[in-house]
Design goal:
This protein is of the alpha/beta class. It contains 9 helices and 12 strands.
Length: 278
């Protein structure tokens, strides 16, 4: 009997994944979690029926959410990651040897299952430079007294526990915990299927920060493949990154200084979305 995961995105659009085997499923305190082996993308983490990461293409997403802000900043030392319990973003951040990372993840079961079933991601969370806080990221940025050079919001889709991570109130909290020259980046979904969300986030960040940008990449396992990140900065301009990679050759599979610049070149239809026009 063939196994298929049907990932429904809209009343008119769904994606079908052929599954070799279901490795693990459970209902956590916050969401339904599954780890499956797909035919084409290897192991995948599924939350509430939506693919979050796959072994085949996770490096694209994680390199782009991490290294664009990290190379924009001249001397990042303290980074906060909200979400990202799979460990992939933390893995990329740790390629910068001077950085300490705080990971705030609401669902401890995501961390535990990725450590067990996706170790190429989850093992990064065992690094001594990483402090894990199991908590609501929204409340964390309201209450913590720590200050960060960079905040990375590696959230799941805007359903369930991640809904509040796309609000202006939350971004105000992020602004509060950033140092005077800090910057943030958030994944902001598809420019095709999430136009209102993207334009709303961009407008909120423009109100709060002197510099706000959207940049693009392609993650084949995500809805329609085309994906956005929104970066907001108190001081440093990502179009003029302060540093270039000096890491061992082969440390990156996707990110390059040339891609860093190119990723901010937006097609006209995305520019129109950011102006609030669909």
């Amino acid at each position: 009997m063939e196994l298929w995961l049907i990932e429904e995105h809209t009343p008119g659009y769904s994606v079908n994944w052929k599954i070799k085997q279901t490795i693990h499923t459970e209902k956590t305190a916050f969401q339904h979690l599954a780890v499956v082996e797909t035919v084409d993308f290897g192991r995948a983490l599924i939350l509430d029926g939506i693919v979050q990461v796959t072994q085949t293409d996770e490096f694209i997403y994680h390199e782009m959410i991490a290294h664009v802000p990290l190379f924009t900043h001249p001397n990042p030392q303290n980074v906060l990651v909200i979400g990202g319990g799979d460990g992939g973003t933390v893995r990329e951040i740790l390629k910068h040897p001077q950085v300490q990372v705080d990971l705030v993840e609401i669902d401890a079961r995501v961390i535990e299952n990725c450590r067990r079933f996706l170790p190429e991601l989850g093992q990064a969370l065992e690094d001594p430079r990483v402090q894990i806080v199991v908590a609501d990221g929204i409340e964390y940025v309201k209450q913590t007294e720590k200050r960060y050079d960079i905040v990375i919001i590696d959230s799941s889709d805007p359903i369930g526990p991640a809904t509040g991570l796309f609000s202006q109130e939350f971004y105000q909290g992020v602004y509060r915990v950033l140092k005077a020259d800090g910057l943030m980046v958030a994944q902001t979904e598809s420019p095709i299927f999430n136009k209102e969300l993207l334009s709303g986030v961009y407008a909120d960040l423009q109100e709060l920060f002197p510099l706000a940008y959207v940049y693009l990449t392609c993650v084949p396992s995500y809805i329609a493949g085309f994906w956005t990140f929104s970066l907001a900065s108190k001081k440093y301009d990502p179009l003029q990154p302060a540093r270039k990679p000096s890491l061992a050759e082969g440390a990156f599979r996707y990110y390059t200084p040339e891609i860093h610049h190119a990723t901010f070149v937006l097609p006209p239809f995305v520019q129109k979305v950011l102006k609030g026009n669909s």
